[in-house]
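ok so for the tutorial part 2 we go from a plain amino acid sequence to predicted structure tokens. step 1 is just haveing the sequence, like this:
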Amino acid sequence: MTYPLKKALSSSLLFAASLLFAVTTLADSASSKNNLDYLQKNWAHATYQLEGTPRQEALSELAEYARQITQTEPAVPEILIWKGIVLSSLAGEKGGLGALGLVKEARTSLQSALEIDPDALQGSAHTSLGTLYHQVPGWPIAFGSDKKAKAHLKKALTINPDGIDSNYFMGQFLFDEGEFDAARAHLEQAMKAPARPGRALADSGRKGEIQALLMQIPAGG
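step 2 — the prediction. this is what the tokens look like for a chain of 221 residues:
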């Protein structure tokens, strides 16, 4: 069967356009994965292997990196989540009123990730938002809310019931609320969480934090 030249050209152009789109999508996907790996590994290094000024400087540099890549990849929820995590960590290092701008920026980034895909990174946007709402002061200083914190942390557990972070941060929240039995249950579940590929340092550091918090739970509490 023969085709008119016009139709043949149209088919060829359509195929070429489809191929270009596929190649571009693959390239973007690879770029996003590389950026995500970079953020995760360098955050773990700063958080668990540095202290004091070196840690704050490393997180500041990582925050700028996250801001830059979200300018070029504004709709990748995984990157937006990690931007929020890095900014929250940097705010924790800085502390005081100087950290308020950072936590507001972190909240915006995490909320944007939720709007795109609430299940991204196994609900990590909910985990991080819940932690942020719990740790930030309430009105009139900032936007902290234990009610919102608990809602996000519960949602994170619905998405990822066996995760190390989802259980650890719920355990931390319950510990702060004086609900020690429930806190212990979540912390023990966090210790049993499966290893995350490529996240050995983060897993090791988090387990150290879990063990430290378990030791603070009163005997019989």
